[in-house]
């Protein structure tokens, strides 16, 4: 298993991998164009050349970023791949000068184990609400939990 930066050629496979979770409303849909625009924000996990997981770090400001679209293929879960992906993004964020990393998720225990703490929804930065949340089928009645980590 290896963690690598994806290329534009990986986008179709990434969209296919995330589709079941998009259908469940767990992860927001992203178009091919949006993923191409932001391809540099992703890391993928590969096993024998096939993508088994990925995650992105979206930067909002000189100090704040967000963990987005974390997914590990069902049969590869509980092997540390999710943790490895998030840790790589946190390292990258730190290297770039990010101070705080936000996540909106149903996976509270997973992110708490990685050092994130629950915050109030009112503390979520506005750009997230207007650019992302309005695209979500659960908006505005969102049950996701917001967590933040200082890095
Ligand atoms: C959340 C998800 C990415 C975790 O990936 P994973 O590769 O199975 O996670 P890991 O094996 O790295 O687990 C890391 C730690 O979190 C724990 N953990 C993993 N999934 C968990 C869960 N659903 N609930 C509670 N704890 C969990 C593991 O026990 C492990 O703890 P340990 O290090 O003490 O052993 C995966 O379950 C997934 O793709 N879920 C569907 C999509 C989703 O919900 N994404 C989050 C969107 S923000």
TrEMBL record:
A GO MF term: L-glutamate N-acetyltransferase activity
CDD domains, alphabetized: NAT_SF
Keywords: Acyltransferase, Transferase
Gene Ontology biological-process entries: L-arginine biosynthetic process
Keyword Transferase assigned: yes
Domain N-acetyltransferase: start-end pairs: 1-140
InterPro entries: Acyl_CoA_acyltransferase, GNAT_dom, NH2A_AcTrfase
Highest rank taxon of the organism: Bacteria
GO cellular component, one term: cytoplasm
NCBIfam families reported for this sequence: PRK07757.1 (NF005840)
PANTHER family according to UniProt: AMINO-ACID ACETYLTRANSFERASE (PTHR30602), AMINO-ACID ACETYLTRANSFERASE NAGS1, CHLOROPLASTIC-RELATED (PTHR30602:SF12)
Identification of the protein by name: N-acetyltransferase
Lineage: Bacteria, Pseudomonadati, Campylobacterota, Epsilonproteobacteria, Campylobacterales
């Amino acid at each position: 298993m290896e963690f690598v930066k994806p290329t534009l050629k990986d986008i179709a496979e990434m969209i296919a991998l995330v589709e079941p979770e998009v259908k469940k409303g767990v992860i927001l849909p992203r178009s091919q164009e949006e993923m191409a625009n932001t391809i540099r924000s992703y890391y993928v996990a590969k096993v024998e050349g096939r993508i088994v997981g990925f995650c992105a770090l979206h930067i909002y400001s000189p100090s704040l970023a967000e963990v987005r679209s974390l997914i590990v293929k069902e049969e590869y879960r509980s092997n540390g791949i999710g943790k490895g992906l998030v840790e790589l993004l946190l390292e990258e964020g730190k290297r770039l000068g990010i101070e705080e990393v936000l996540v909106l998720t149903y996976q509270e225990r997973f992110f708490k184990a990685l050092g994130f703490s629950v915050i109030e929804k009112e503390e979520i930065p506005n750009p997230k609400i207007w650019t992302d949340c309005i695209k979500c089928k659960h908006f505005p009645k969102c049950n996701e939990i917001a967590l933040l980590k200082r890095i």
